[in-house]
Amino acid sequence: MSSGRVRVLRPQELDEGERRHWRELRAKSSAPRNPFMEPEFTAAVGLVRPRARVAVVYEGGEAAGFLPHERGPFGQGRAIGLGVSDCQGAVARQGLRVDCRELLRACALSSFVFDNLQAEQGLLAPYAAEEHPAYVIDVVRGYAAYECGLRARSPKFLKGTLAKERRLGRQVGEVRFVFDERDPAALRTLMAWKSAQYRRTGRRDRFAREWITRLVGGLAGTRAAQCSGTLSVLYAGGRPVAAHFGLRSASVLACWFPAYDPRFAKYSPGLVLHLRMAEAAAAHGIGLLDLGRGRAEYKDALKTGELPVYEGAVTRRGTGAALHWLAREPARRAQGFVRSRPRLASLAARSLKSAARLRR
C-alpha cells in the first residue's frame, strides 16, 4: 500500500472535510457521476445496515481514497448495498497506489465482492471475473434529438408507444406526468406494485426485506446536489398507472425501481413513463439515464448504448477466501453459463414464473 494510513469508520463518522474530499474526487473522475457512488448513498445504507463501513486512505494528511463496504461473518466483505446498488467501487485520487489485499487486511476483511463495478476502476478492475452491459439512454443533446434517433432506429416502437399514450388519455382520463413526486402514498403504491411483480415473476421480493424498504424510504427524502431521491409518476384520470423511484445527480439519473399497475398493461404505461422521464431529465440538464445491467425488452427498445460494469472479488488467502469461493463461485458460474445461452435463459425465466404461479 502507499505510505498513507487507513482508518475504517462507520459512514456517519466521516467528518465534513472527508465528505468534501469524497465529492471532489468524484467531480474529477472521468466516469459518469452515478449517485450510487456518492457519500449520501453510503450514509443512507449505514443507517439501515449496522455493518456498513468506509475505509479512508490518507496521503499527506489528507483523505485520498474511500472504499465503502459492508463486513459480513468471518470478515467477508461486499460492496456497499450489494444486492441493490447498481454502481460500485472505490473513490480515489488519480495515481493513488494501494495494494488491494493490504487494504483488505487493514479493514479486517478476507474478501471484497462486487457485482456492478463502475468502469475505470484501476484499484479493483484487475479482480473482475465477468463484464456485463449496463444499458443507457443518452439525452445530452436534448430529448428531441433522442426521440429523433429513436424514430430512426425503431419507428414502429415509438409510434406504437405514443399511440398507446394517447389512447390511455382518451379511455382512462387525462395523462399527467410528475418527475419529482413528493407524495409518500405514491411511493407506497410503487413498492406494492414492485413486490407483486417480483412474486408474479418468481423472483425474490426485495421489498419483503426491511432494510431495503427503509433504505428506499430514507433516500426518498435525500436532497443533495449529487444524490437526490426521485420518484416519478405517470397518472391517468387522476390515478397512478406507472411509477419509478431512482437516484439522480446533476448529470445522471440512475433508474432503479420501475413498476406499473398491471390493470393498465395494454397501454404500456411503463414505456410511456420512461419516455417522459427521459424528456424531464433532459429538461433538468441530466445527460444520461442509467437503466442498469440485466436484459429486458424495454431496455433494448429505449437504450442508445451500453456501458460496461464488472462482477468479481478480491480475496486474501485463508479460511475466509475459501468460504467466499464456496458461497458464491459455483452459483455465479452457473448463472453466467445460463445467461450466455439465450434459450436456457428463456427457459429459466419461464420456470421461475411457473414456480411463482404454483406458490400462489
TrEMBL record:
Protein name (Swiss-Prot/TrEMBL): Cellulose biosynthesis protein CelD
Domain BioF2-like acetyltransferase: 161-299
SUPFAM superfamilies reported for this sequence: Acyl-CoA N-acyltransferases (Nat)
InterPro entries cross-referenced by the UniProt entry: Acyl_CoA_acyltransferase, BioF2-like_GNAT_dom
Pfam family, one: Acetyltransf_6
Residues spanning the signal sequence: none
Upper taxonomic lineage: Bacteria, Bacillati, Actinomycetota, Actinomycetes, Kitasatosporales
Organism: Streptomyces leeuwenhoekii
